[in-house]
Design brief:
The chain has 5 helices and no strands. The N and C termini lie close together (8 Å). It has helices spanning 3-25, 33-36, 43-72, 76-100, 105-123. It is elongated. Helix 1 packs antiparallel against helix 5 (105-123), helix 3 (43-72) runs antiparallel to helix 4 and helix 4 packs antiparallel against helix 5. Helices cover 81% and strands 0% of the residues. The protein has one domain (3-123). 28% of the residues are buried. The chain is an all-alpha fold.
């Protein structure tokens, strides 16, 4: 697996960790309401999905890091499989996001484009 693919995987893992913090810890911040398409009155209702999605993103970040560690320690097929699956999963989830909520098209692009590039790099 190329160094570029490994670096992109780590970059995406860092992005997903930031998303985890935003979704699970900072979602109550009024500046972030537009990001989640919510109002203050919605906080109680959205708490479960924001925290859940945040931890989903954190575990996905961990999977990417684990994949890179596996690749770098001589477990190439296992590491590549983990990275390819995770990238494909995020491409798919970006499509689901934009189909289910067109207003979040920019979020879908930010999730899907780096993952698609990673998928292409990892498969070549």
């Amino acid at each position: 697996m190329s160094t570029a693919a490994q670096m992109l995987a780590i970059f995406i893992a860092v992005m997903l960790t930031v998303v985890f913090v935003t979704e699970s810890l900072l979602y109550r911040n009024p500046r972030l309401y537009p990001l989640f398409l919510i109002r203050k009155d919605d906080l109680g209702a959205v708490r479960m999905w924001t925290v859940n999605m945040g931890f989903y993103n954190l575990t996905t970040a961990a999977a990417l890091v684990a994949g890179v560690v596996l690749v770098r320690t001589g477990h190439l097929p296992q590491g590549e499989a983990l990275i390819i699956f995770t990238a494909a999963q995020h491409v798919f989830m970006a499509v689901v996001l934009v189909v289910s909520q067109r207003q979040l098209w920019l979020n879908a692009l930010m999730e899907g484009i780096p993952a698609a590039v990673l998928l292409i790099l990892a498969l070549n």
